[in-house]
């Protein structure tokens, strides 16, 4: 398991904390601006704005 | 939950694939994968990718046939009808005039659903002809081509709840009530899950529905109506977080067991 890390939200610049057990592709929410972010890499940790929900998404 | 369950089993070599990064060369379709478990949120990408994995001889859960049927409410209803399984009354039309006529014959209220869609999005409960005209005009002006396929379901008074039944293989493993003050009770729309005891009636209809669409696993949504259970939808990449929390059942564990057993069947073949 990796160590946790603090990153900058790409939208508002707020601090985003990722735990050591974070998975690639996981979706998290920026606690400052509420934007949904996708964890695009875990080595090293990186986040980007998550894709917008599309009409065919679902179960 | 599912990824952690796979990782807890050292005998499994888990390869996570992001469908946005997949590429297929149709003149060179080969794979060393044993089983593909579809957990994509994108129905269109998943269905096409599964078809190509099947071209490679890879066993997919669920299969292209099952996923295609479940992802389309019209196809699901057609299969349920062919198998004589109970479902709310459904009518289908391909033009506004035909849809209005079908709704009047059915009697209001009705529910208009996109044939392909999920998480309770773009559902319309229509109480009268004026509302029907307005919704159909919005669909024509703002909707995509898919909205020209007009799927109309009789509104079922379900007392604020429906059932989500999780079927894995030949087992009905968990069931929960999804309760909401809103007529849409999907967990994705804020419905609250509570444990439901699996009666023989629930088991029978859920297993029959899953088998009808040839699913290896499914989330079967049921309505209670006049003492019987009606199949509302069958979900091929079902979500189960709410159901696990409500029932304490280890659904991810059961899914991984099924994946392992399907892989073993291939190894023995």
Molecular structure report:
The complex is a heterodimer of chains A (59) and B (269). In chain A, 17% of the residues are buried. Chain A has one domain: Rubrerythrin, domain 2. In chain A, strands 3-4-5 form a 3-stranded antiparallel β-sheet, with no helix packed on it. A two-stranded antiparallel sheet of chain A has the order 1-2. Chain A is an all-beta fold and 59 residues long. By secondary structure, chain B is α+β, with helices and mostly antiparallel strands. Chain B folds into 2 domains: 199 residues, ATP-grasp fold, B domain (D-amino Acid Aminotransferase, Chain A, domain 1), CATH 3.30.470; 65 residues, 2-Layer Sandwich (Dna Ligase, domain 1). Chain B is 37% helix and 22% strand. Chain B contains 9 helices and 11 strands. In chain B, the strands form 3 sheets. Chain B has a 5-stranded antiparallel β-sheet with strand order 9-8-7-10-11. A 4-stranded antiparallel β-sheet of chain B has the order 3-6-4-5, with helices on both faces. Chain B has a two-stranded parallel sheet with strand order 1-2. Chains A and B meet through loops of A and loops of B.
Brief overview:
Chain A is an all-beta fold and 59 residues long.
Q: Which helices and strands occur, and which strands form pairs?
A:
The complex is a heterodimer of chains A (59) and B (269).
Chain A: E1 5-8, E2 15-18, E3 27-29, E4 36-42, E5 45-49
Antiparallel strand pairs in A: 1-2, 3-4, 4-5
Chain B: H1 2-7, E1 35-37, H2 43-55, E2 59-61, H3 64-71, H4 73-82, E3 90-93, H5 96-106, E4 110-113, E5 124-126, H6 129-142, E6 150-154, E7 161-168, E8 171-179, E9 192-195, H7 200-212, E10 217-225, E11 228-235, H8 241-247, H9 251-268
Helix pairs in contact in B: 2-3, 3-4, 5-6
